[in-house]
Every structure is written in structure tokens, then in C-alpha cells.
Amino acid sequence: MTLLAWLGDSAAEPYAREVIKRLSPSDDVSQWPRRVASANIDLALVLLKENRMDEACNSAQKAILSGRVVPSNHWRALEVVKAVEARKLPESADLREAYQNLKAIEKGKVLPRPA
After folding, report:
1. How far apart are CA 37 and CA 86, in angstroms?
2. Over 90: is that where the pLDDT of 103 sits?
3. d(CA 72, CA 30)
4. Quick one: CA dihedral 60, 65, 70, 74, positive or negative?
5. Three-state SS across the chain?
6. How many Å apart are CA 79 and CA 50, to the nearest integer?
7. What digits encode the pLDDT tens for the residues 28-65?
8. For the residues 15-22, what does the mean pLDDT come to?
């Protein structure tokens, strides 16, 4: 699935959706295993290639907010963030903030939430 997503092959979409469906213990993203977060990043990358930006943004944001994206996958999440920002989608600010918080947590610095 990840290889197909890297190649931009739409065949990755059903595999990613199946992993998410089978391994998600609940809608609570903080309870997800890492594989579900990775599957959401894979899904987001495929959706980008298909120009389904809103869905890609949503999938990436869920993965990022889960706190289960491993550092080796941060660059893949950033690829989605940059693509959403390039399209100037309204969701881009929230997605960027979530990504910056993910990076801050990795460095041990939690960013304050704006008032």
C-alpha cells in the first residue's frame, strides 16, 4: 500500500481504506495503532494525486492529530500539508498548525494553542 501511494497509484486507496477499517479500534484517533496513522497518510497521498484535496486534508489531519505518526513519516505528512497550502484551501491553516504541533512534540516543546 505504501509503495503504491508513493508511486501515486490509485490502487493504494482500497488497501488503505481496508487497513483503516480493520485496525481502527474506534473513532478516537488517540487510540489508533501506528499502522492506521500510516494508512491515513498513504490514503492522503493517493487522494492528492487524484485531486481530492478536501479528503486528502481530512485524512492527513486525522493521522497527524492521532499522535501516532512516526518521525520517519513526518515528511510524507508535510507533503500533504504543502499541497493543501499551495491550493489555498481554508483547511490549510489548521493542517499546518497540527503538523507544527506534531513536530514540536517530537522536540519536546508543546506549542500553546491560540486564544
Report:
1. 23
2. no
3. 19
4. positive
5. CHHHHHHCCCCHHHHHHHHHHHHCCCCCHHHCCHHHHHHHHHHHHHHHHCCCHHHHHHHHHHHHHHCCCCHHHHHHHHHHHHHHHHCCCCCHHHHHHHHHHHHHHHCCCCCCCCC
6. 15
7. 777 778 889 999 999 999 999 999 999 999 999 999 99
8. 90
